[in-house]
Amino acid sequence: MTEIARITPALRVVAHPTAHLTGTQKAAIIVRLLLAEGAAVDIRKLPDHMQAALAEQMGQLRLIDRTTLTAVVEEFVTELEQVGLSFPEGIEGALGMMDGHISPSAANRLRRLASAGARADPWDRIVPLPPERLLPLLEEESPEVAAVILSKLPVTRAADLLSRLPGDRARRVAYAVSLTGNIDPETVRRIGVALAAQLGSQPPSAFEAGPVERVGAILNVSPAATRESVLQGLEETDTAFAEQVRRAIFTFGSIPARLAPRDVARVLRGVDPAVLVTALAYAAAGPLAPVVEFLLSNMSPRLAQSLRESMAERGTVREKQGEEATAAVVGVIRQLEAAGEIVLIQPDE
């Protein structure tokens, strides 16, 4: 018995606390712990089958003792510490990292190959596209397809695009959204594949923005006299193009009609105080006075009074200084719009 007692301890095998857990179960434990700690965990970028497996394991696991939890966390942290380099997920992430280092033709070829993959999500490529690329799809595709596109976009971007459609088209697309409640994910994926292929077949352009946007952007920062002279010339040459350019232009005078009152304070916070006073003092002395009143009436009374006093002290502003200051205010508005922090009201059709 003495010999048996001596040998027995050497035969014992102490199992690691996580040896009985699968990789998916460990992942479920980590996700559950992060959620319990209030961390923002977004697993929507995972393939659907991995999301389903993770949710299934979270539904099956019951109680995890503290020793096992500690061991899972330590193992997870150890694996993270051993990571030396990480790469972006998917073709779109890789192309974003290589932007400026790869030709447009090569990028389009890679996107087409990725779209053909069985597990590729074509909407990862479509959703980030700028409005000028998405608007033709909403105008040319069937209302049902346009409704799917809007449904895949963030609400603010969808609202902006819907407002750019003609009234009758916008109503039909909005109604089609109500019919998408029972559409299955595979159908949505196939629509995305077709749209991505259609977009990929378009030849690359040397310019990111269209001609209307480019001319509008130039005239936005041009002196008022130059802007009106160019617009008059465009109207004589191409009335339709001139009208599109006028709609694309956003000047200091456009503020009351296109800037929501709730966004006034956010815009003014981004303008240098001295520049703001110069812009307001210049505009208040001419036909742009209604713009000044619009801005002052949509801020706190104390700030408005302070600005009025500063404007009075500023006195007369030279035209060049005034136009530069008002252009700076417009520039801040455009920056906030491009960043998605505000949505400008679109002109009436």
Structure, explained:
By secondary structure, this protein is mainly alpha-helical. It has 3 domains: 2-81, no CATH class; 101-200, Flagellar motor switch protein FliG, alpha-alpha superhelical domain (Annexin V, domain 1); 250-338, Annexin V, domain 1, CATH 1.10.220. The chain is built from 21 helices and no strands. It has helices at 2-11, 23-36, 48-60, 66-81, 90-97, 104-115, 123-126, 131-140, 143-152, 155-164, 167-177, 185-200, 211-220, 224-237, 239-248, 255-258, 264-269, 273-284, 289-297, 301-314, 319-338. α13 packs across α15 (239-248). The longest helix has 20 residues, at 319-338. Residues 1-14 have low confidence and may be disordered.
What is the secondary structure topology, with strand pairs?
Layout: H1 2-11, H2 23-36, H3 48-60, H4 66-81, H5 90-97, H6 104-115, H7 123-126, H8 131-140, H9 143-152, H10 155-164, H11 167-177, H12 185-200, H13 211-220, H14 224-237, H15 239-248, H16 255-258, H17 264-269, H18 273-284, H19 289-297, H20 301-314, H21 319-338
Global outline = extended
Number of domains: 3
The CATH topology name of the largest domain reads Annexin V, domain 1
Average residue-wise pLDDT: 80
Category by helix and strand content:
mainly alpha
Give the DSSP E fraction (strand runs of 2 or more residues). Answer: under 5%
Low-confidence segments, ≥5 residues, pLDDT <50?
1-14
The largest pleated sheet is described as:
none
**Strand segment tally:** 0
The CATH superfamily of the largest domain is known as Flagellar motor switch protein FliG, alpha-alpha superhelical domain
Would you list the SSEs in sequence order as H and E?
HHHHHHHHHHHHHHHHHHHHH
Architecture (CATH level 2) name of the largest domain: Orthogonal Bundle
At the first level of CATH, the class of the largest domain is Mainly Alpha
Helix content range: 55-70%
> CA-to-CA gap between the ends?
98 Å
